[in-house]
Amino acid sequence: MSSNLSHEWSGCFSGLLAGSRRQRSCQSVPLQEESAAPLAPQESSHGKTLPGEFREGGLPPPYSWTTSEKDHIPDVMKTIEDTIHGLDHELRQLSLDIHDHPELGFEERYAHDRLTEFMSSRGFTVTRQYLGLATAWRAEFRRGARGLGRIVGVNAEMDALPGIGHACGHNLIAMAGVAIALALRAALEKHDVPGTVVLLGTPAEESGAGKQILLERGAYKDMDVCIMCHPVAGDTLELGFISSLALQTLSVEYFGQPAHAGYAPWDGVNALDAAFVAYAGISALRQQIRPEQRVHGVISGRDWTPNVIPDYAKMSWSVRADAWGAVEPLRERVMNCLESGASATGCRHQVVLGERYLDLRQNPVLAEDMALAAQRCYGIPSYWTEQPASASTDFVPLPALHPIFNIPTPDDAKNHTRGFAQGARTEAAHTAALRTAALLARTGFRVHADAAFCARVRAAYEAGGAKVGGAP
Ligand SMILES: [Zn+2]
Ligand SMILES: [Zn+2]
């Protein structure tokens, strides 16, 4: 991976997602025991009929509660909540501790040690420095013989941003991951269900695509589903299920020949011209790409001065589309433009492919299960959109659930600001993260306990999600 791309912050879609969220009022209802009956359609704040205020902007497949839901879930939710409440103080300390020690991607050594120690002390089987990454780790709990039951994966991001610390709230993500894993273990034990929980410490989400490296090295290959959550700024209680774009970064260098720009320009080979010809080609290309696709980049150079023909230029580009399968042909069209700059000017050029972020598609069956539970347990509405946000994250091609939840921040400061970093250490953010963790643990448990539900999850993935994730 090209190190010159490391500053570009390709990942982390949440800041842009925050801007795409709709404003809505939220009416909280008292905590109530879950009912086995499906929610009656109700009038949403937008005047549409939505079960649990869920279907606006998208249409997950029809879904109804099953017998196993009736049998297991209410008791299981109590187990999950009791477990998380019992750990509340320790989880709060864990989150604040990580917040107090912000570390950039692939440098999350403090978080690595703190989190692996924590999981090890709770009886999980911990692998430190997992798969050759110094700050990746894996914590596993298994109930029953190996191969028995299903495997639920949970991601714990840990990285911060330069200068502004945990301004994306990954301390909350790490803590929520721990809470989900411990709650799932408690539920498997108490309700006697076989299965495995794998909590992955995933480095470098903001830049570096740590999960993609782990994916390519096999970290996700056995998982049936993978879940996590991410905070965004907001005062209302709500959950969002939003997809994100697939992304490829690349850079190109042009190598020419310097010459006196006035005295003998014919002796020169102009690398800056090569970059501008290529840029113009891409600008023309952008008029003929789909609305959800993006190609954006910058030109840089060295030792440029007007009276010397530049012999070096560099461009860095990002190519985004709603699915990885669409990124590849678009990338080839961009490469043709880069080539045209070289051939038009006689420069030599070299292209380096950088980070690759696969598209994130929320699994509609998992999402609807969580959304309905959020409404019933906590009175929290959810929103769903199949239109990807115009940003990317380094998620993995699996049946996945990656909700965003709101935390209050000073002046509604968005992700990647100092204000958001302040918000990420408040009691309110802590409570919101743990509430989301409880709901995710509940849906994760359902994957463990309900074979028919898991089959529907898989079928939805095969029908929609599988084609977009693509094989790495
Ligand atoms: Zn971020
Ligand atoms: Zn983030």
Automatic annotation (TrEMBL):
GO terms for molecular function: dipeptidase activity. InterPro entries: Amidohydrolase, Bact_exopeptidase_dim_dom, Peptidase_M20, Peptidase_M20/M20A_hydrolases, Peptidase_M20_dimer. It holds the Pfam family Peptidase_M20. It comes from the Eukaryota. Residues 27-68 are annotated as: Disordered. Coiled coil: none annotated. Residues 251-340 form the Peptidase M20 dimerisation domain. Belongs to the peptidase M20A family. PANTHER family: PEPTIDASE M20, XAA-ARG DIPEPTIDASE. This is Amidohydrolase. It comes from Russula ochroleuca.
